[in-house]
Design goal:
It contains 16 helices and no strands. By secondary structure, it is mainly alpha-helical. The two termini are 13 Å apart.
């Protein structure tokens, strides 16, 4: 009953309803669309705000407090793409290129799904660790690197060309706007602390949910454009995109409780483990595996897993976490 109440609350939240409106607008062929510059600006705002608030809450914390959760988050990010890669090759019957591309998406994380779980916990008045954005930051890149390595090794491409692509991939991951904004925001928030953050809180704190609602409206529009690709994805990939988030979410919850996170922090780690990147990973895949099919990796991550997590996944991961904690 409690899970159904959480699900009902999520379905009726402005963020999810805005996503549904964007999806509906595309399906009925409305002329509603966001300028590319506005979509990019909303992304920059969300990533930087997440980093700033996380850094501010990290201020004064000891590495002994944050070390274990950060290490566990990195380990999750490194291991998830391994079994995803081999499962996609065997059960999914995909070649190494497409298996690696999709595995990179499912090992990496979604900043928008992270924003949604923060809003979910805040609406439910569930406390969580202030350094949660650091979990997001450390989980974005490792999985992409692991998945690309597996794909390149399986493809047996020219060694020098593979090395060149891999170096370019590492550079673009480290200098990409997602990592720069998250880690830069964390550093600024950490250095400024609560007193410094209070100076910009009117811009980066209160308006956050409103900006997230606008961004999810835009994501709904983009997702609607990928719905037609579901036929190309096939039953096996659709099953993968629905089942793996649940398994990864449950695994993330178990790991979160084991490494000492609170109920809210464990829900966040579970959601991150279950999420699939559709910003950083596609950019990296275009560089390292240009022959991979966007119809497969974007459809699975954006058109299937993302809506599932936003609407159903987060309440399920939270309910399982509460069960683990005996609440």
């Amino acid at each position: 009953m409690e899970t159904l109440q959480s699900l009902s609350t999520t379905l009726l939240s402005p963020m999810v309803l805005a996503f549904g409106l964007g999806l509906f607008a595309t399906l009925v062929k409305s002329d509603l669309k966001f300028p590319d510059e506005l979509g990019s600006a909303l992304t920059i705002y969300l990533l930087f705000a997440i980093g700033l608030k996380g850094g501010m809450k990290l201020h004064g914390m000891s590495i002994s407090v944050v070390g274990a959760p950060l290490l566990c988050a990195i380990m999750l990010s490194c291991t998830i793409p391994i079994w995803c890669f081999y499962l996609l090759k065997s059960f999914g019957r995909l070649d190494a290129t497409n298996a690696g591309a999709i595995a990179a998406h499912y090992g990496s994380v979604s900043a928008v799904t992270f924003s949604a779980v923060l809003a979910f916990l805040e609406n439910g008045k569930v406390e969580f660790e202030g350094y949660a954005p650091a979990l997001l930051a450390v989980m974005e890149a490792p999985s992409i690197i692991v998945a690309m390595f597996l794909a390149m090794r399986a493809m047996n491409t020219n060694e020098s060309r593979s090395l060149e692509n891999f170096k370019r991939l590492l550079h673009d991951l480290i200098t990409g706007k997602g990592i720069i904004l998250l880690l830069g925001g964390l550093a600024i928030g950490l250095l400024c602390g609560h007193q410094g953050f209070s100076q910009v809180a009117p811009l980066f704190d209160s308006p956050f949910k409103g900006v997230l609602t606008l961004f999810l409206l835009e994501v709904g529009i983009v997702t609607g454009r990928r719905v037609r690709d579901l036929k190309a994805a096939g039953f096996r990939l659709v099953a993968f995109a629905l089942i793996m988030p649940l398994l990864h979410g449950l695994l993330g919850a178990l790991v979160g409780k084991w490494c000492g996170l609170s109920l809210g922090g464990t829900t966040i780690l579970a959601t991150l483990a279950a999420s699939a990147s559709y910003i950083a990973a596609p950019a990296a895949v275009r560089i390292a595996l240009p022959q991979a099919s966007p119809a497969l990796y974007l459809t699975s991550s954006l058109a299937i897993t993302f809506p599932f997590n936003i609407v159903f996944g987060i309440p399920i991961y939270h309910a399982f976490t509460k069960y683990l904690f005996g609440d």
